[in-house]
Amino acid sequence: MTEQASRRPDAGAVVFKDERLTYEALERASNRLARLLKDAGCARGDRVCLLAPKSPAAIVAILGVLKADAVYVPLDPASPPARLEKMIVSCDNRWILASGAVGATLEALFASPPFAATHAVGWLGAEDPPDGVTAQFTLGDLAAYPGEAPRSANSPRDAAHILFTSGSTGMPKGVVITHANVRHFIDWAVPYFGTAPTDRISGHPPLHFDLSTFDVFGTFAAGAELHLVPPELNLLPHQLAELIRDARLTQWFSVPSVLNYMAKFEVVKEGDFPSLRRVLWCGEVFPTPALIYWMRRLPHVTFTNLYGPTETTIASSYYTVPSVPASEDEGIPIGQACGGEELHVLDEALRPVAPGEVGQLYIRGVGLSPGYWRDAEKTRGAFLPYPGSSDPQDRIYRTGDLASVGADGLIRFLGRADSQIKARGYRIELGEIEAALHPVETLQECAVVGVPSRDFDGVAICCAYVPRDGVAVTPGGLRDVVARSLPPYMLPSRWMALAALPRTPSGKIDRRRLKELFAPETVGAGGAA
What we know:
It is a single chain. The chain is α/β, with parallel strands linked by helices and 529 residues long. The protein folds into three domains: 2-154, Rossmann fold (3-Layer(aba) Sandwich); 200-416, ANL, N-terminal domain (Rossmann fold); 428-522, GMP Synthetase, Chain A, domain 3. A hairpin with a 2-residue loop joins strand 23 and strand 24. The chain starts with a helix and ends in a 7-residue tail after the last helix.
């Protein structure tokens, strides 16, 4: 970043709607923020939470926190305050950098005296802080600090950021990602994709989603220009297509559901997007019919499937599709390992399975997170010693995904081995949704399952419930209750009242039967019951 500002100070770094920051402006603003944070007592390794929508100010915040030798923790502004409070408190931090329409959320958080006594807000919005929000500093205070980079003490093994993912117990898990984790992936990806200063790269995912890490730091490593995609366009496929054309984007990277949605509304013309060179996706399966739609219309574009959980930093494998699939039933491999990574398909005894056989997918290599923030037990359960190695640092990550190795040596993803799903690219623990419903006194019991859908989400979250005797329960009422503790993308879209939940012979809830009950109304259907 500093190198790019020195070499090409007037080149565009970040574009968002009518706002444009050059590399020099971004460098000096982030340096000033870093100096302010240090002056305010922020020390190496301190966590700084970011509660802001995607914007140039948020990018300044990320860089400023890193230059202060601290750890940035991006949060979802759409999450309920109760859920955000769990994450913020677990970070054991003081500073929350905020901007945008988060006034009501901050008021709710700071209504708690213990929270207010231990946390402070730095307001980075161009506008004044919202009524009811007391900011310890604002954007205008940055001008008092020098624009030169402060001295850095961070090492490659230090944490760069913590990304919270859904937790099966109802408590989100914080995945620690180091500077080295990110740098290894960027050092592989930029040369592989040929990213250059002339590139104009999409910034589609929200900043609390790990794909954004590649957008931001891959762009800056190459000296390219990052175009932040306004989130309100996500359900406006025609306007997404217009943005790609008008911004003359050369690279698009998103979850497949966005590409699938654009295909569903047929917004891509023959030979469209003449500047576009690469389309990348990650986070879930891209339906082959939609991929065929894109590839036939854009023969000048390369299409690459990336795969990797948050715990292994952005992506661990890749597969660039060589030609238009011959059939809509043809599955797209997740391919081969990225540089410095290894993919292993193992049986229950952690032995390699034979080609073509199904096993669980494990990942080894430079992208592995050190583990979950202050949760040694969960870390030990997911990051295992590499079989046969005497080095305690030599680990493999249990993805929970089923996979097989083809005769061509390529890995194929076959589904989840547990109750976790992916919808809109978000990794969701169904157990966390159930945990939010269990305290509801009007329910006797409930269960949540994911069912494939042709809608935008890709997977419909479905909740079956048994009301208590004589109590009136409505899906709308239940949805309102869980909306107080879960973000919008985790709310069930289908509800079913039953006299009793189906059971297996062992007495467990029969989730396979529940999926069958929901499937007829879910496939091809949308909306809430």
